Amino acid sequence: MRKIRIALNLVYMIPLILLSACSEKENVGPTVDIVNPQDGASIIQGEIIPIKAMADDEDGSIIELSIYIEGEVVATEEASTVIYNWNTADLEVGGYVLSAVGTDDGEKSTAVNIIVLLDTPGGLNPDLTYGSVSDIDGNAYATIEMGTQVWMAENLKVSHYPDGTPITPISDSAEWNAMTPDVQAYCWYNNLTEYSDTSGALYTWATAMNGELSSDIIPSGVQGICPDGWHLPADAEWKILEMFLGMTQADADNYDWRGSDEGGQLKETGFSNWAFPNTGGSNSSGFTTVPGGFRSAKGAFYSVDHNAAFWSSKAEEGADNAWYRTLHYDREQVYRQYNDMRLGLSVRCLKD
Description:
Elements: H1 2-22, E1 31-36, E2 42-44, E3 48-56, E4 62-69, E5 72-77, E6 81-87, E7 94-104, E8 109-119, E9 131-134, E10 140-146, E11 149-152, H2 173-177, E12 186-187, E13 202-203, H3 205-209, E14 230-231, H4 235-244, H5 249-252, E15 256-258, H6 262-266, E16 294-295, E17 301-302, E18 307-315, E19 321-328, E20 334-340, E21 350-351
C-alpha cells in the first residue's frame, strides 16, 4: 500500500513540473559596466578622457545604453558599447559621478555608478614668477614675492646648519620622546627619505632656531637653520603675510582658525599631496604649501596628507612652547597657536 501511495504522489508531481517548465521565463535585467576609467581613478584636469560603457543581456538584446556625468546624459546609443570623450579642460577639480544605464528588449534597465577624482598637476603656480635660493647642502628652493616679503615656496629639507655642522637625525620614537625642549634634532616623516622631495624635513623648534633666543620683531633676526640672507619668520611676520592675503588685523591677532580663505590661497592645488577635498586650495599666492604632517613630542607621526605646520621664531613666555601656523586639508583658514617645542614641524624661511 505504501508503494502505491508513493507512486501516486509521483504521478501528481509530474504535471506540476511540466506546468512550471511551460510557464513564461522571467526576463533577466542586463549587466552594465564602465570599463574606463576605473572607479576611484585620478584624472588630470585638461585631459580628454574616453568614458567606455558596455552592457550585455543574457536572455535578449540591448536596445539602449547611456552615459551620464553628474546625473546629466552625455551619450545614448542603440548599442552594447558606448564611448564618450570627456573634455575636462573647463571643469573644476573634485569628485565626479559617472553613470551608465543599459536597457534590454524586455524594457528592464540596470544602472552602474563610479566616482573619479579630477585633479591638477599641482606644484608651483604656473602664472607667477619665482626666484630661487639654495641651502648649505645645495638644495635649491623656489621663492615667491608677496607684498613686501619674499618667502621660500618649498619646505626646508636641509640636514646641516648654515656653518656646515650636521643636524642630529633622530628616528627612534623612544629617543624622540625622551628629548628635552632644548634638544636639536630633525627627521623625515615616518623616517622615509622619500618625503624630502615633497614635504621636506621635520624639525624641533630648538633646531629651527639653532639655539637662538625667541624673537617677535620684524624682521625676526633669527637665521636659525635658514640659508645666509634668510631667517625664521617671527609670529608677527606670519601676520604680515596673512593680512597681505586679506586677513584683518583682529583676525591675525586671534587664536585657532582665523580669517576666511587665506589658507586656501597658500595651499598647493589638487590632490597629489593634499587629501581630498583640499578645501579652497588655489595656490593663488604662489606659496605652494604641501602637507608635511608632524611628529608629536612622543615621537609618533601624524597627518602627512592632511596637515601642514610651520614654526615661527616666537616662544610662549614662561613655557616650553612656541608659536606656529597650520593649514588643513578640509579648511581654507589659517590656524595660529603654540605647542610643545619638541614637536617636529616644517620650516619656511623668509628673506632678510
